[in-house]
Amino acid sequence: MKQKRDLFLCITCLLIAFLLTLSDGRQKDEALAARIAPEILRFHVLANSDSSEDQTLKLKVRTMLLNSIYEDLGEKASLEETKDYVLSHKNSLERQAEHYMKKLGYDYPAHMELTNCYFPTKTYGDMVFPCGNYEAVRVKIGEGKGRNWWCVLYPPLCFTDSSYAVVPDTSKTILKSSMVESDYKKISQENPKIHIRFKLADLLSKPEPTAQKTLQAP
Question: InterPro entries, alphabetically (predicted)?
Fold first, then answer.
């Protein structure tokens, strides 16, 4: 009986230590996110549903909107210019998306907003963005109840396949110049390290991004 009790206590202590380590790691990630977030604008697209058709449509709308935004903005737009563009062109971008979807046979509304969302930790190309709150251009297609897609609109890191994307040197330069060197090194994976993910960590992580604060267009 004593051996079973000692084993139970040992397992309990190990579990508590593990949970404390996870909590401490997330707090550090969120603190890092709070420092770098003011220099980053993310792009977040929510599909109408998780059906294969709606998920495919989400990616098509994403590509159309990104092409339109980058074509109008050019390569040298600042963070404030990018946000100002989204706010001032919000209605026209929504109409573009709705017209595009109608041509494909879908009668979904599109809603775009500049908002503040919580994002889990994400690897994008050779950069890792820690979990935390970031300002984001959020596009909701239809009911917006399907899986989402995200990228970084500023600095320009939006690629159609983030699994194999390599962040452009120009974008790295912008990031590096806008934050302290130690923070940049933490998000840069130029010298990759092995990251071990635990299923329990995934279960305890926060849910997909949800809006907390919305900035309305003028």
Answer: Spore_II_R
In terms of Cα–Cα distance, which of 135, 58, 62, 65 is closest to 93? 65
102-130 pLDDT, tens digit each: 999 999 999 999 999 898 888 877 888 99
Indicate the pTM of the whole model: 0.72
